[in-house]
Amino acid sequence: MPMSQPDYSSLLARRFSLSTRQVGATLKLLEAGATVPFISRYRKEATGSLDEVQIAEIAGAHKRY
């Protein structure tokens, strides 16, 4: 059974020591087709100023699940 979005955000937030809001916003942007460079440059307000490395880690974990 797949994990629900909030549970998945919480899991990744704990894993990367981030807030669930940051992870959830990043996942929504990634699922909408935004790229890591785009998110890190133009969506800082949505992600709480995550850098490209942090976003790439979330994206990598997202691809694995």
Percent range of helical residues: over 70%
User: Structural class, please?
Assistant: mainly alpha
Going by CATH, the architecture of the domain at 21-64 would be Orthogonal Bundle
- How many E-type strands? 0
Main sheet: strands, sense, barrel:
none
Total helices: the number is 5
| CATH fold-level assignment of the domain at 21-64 | Arc Repressor Mutant, subunit A
Low-confidence stretches: none
What's the quick description here?
The chain has helices at 5-16, 20-31, 36-42, 44-47, 52-64. It is mostly helical and 65 residues long.
Q: Secondary-structure blueprint of this entry?
A:
Elements: H1 5-16, H2 20-31, H3 36-42, H4 44-47, H5 52-64
Helix pairs in contact: 1-2, 2-5, 3-5
Question: Which key phrases capture this entry?
Answer:
74% helix, mainly alpha, single chain, globular, 65 residues, Arc Repressor Mutant, subunit A
What does this molecule look like?
The protein is an all-alpha fold and 65 residues long. It has a domain at 21-64: Arc Repressor Mutant, subunit A (Orthogonal Bundle), CATH 1.10.10. 74% of the residues lie in helices and 0% in strands. It has helices at residues 5-16, 20-31, 36-42, 44-47, 52-64. It is globular and about 25 Å long. The model has no long low-confidence stretch (mean pLDDT 90).
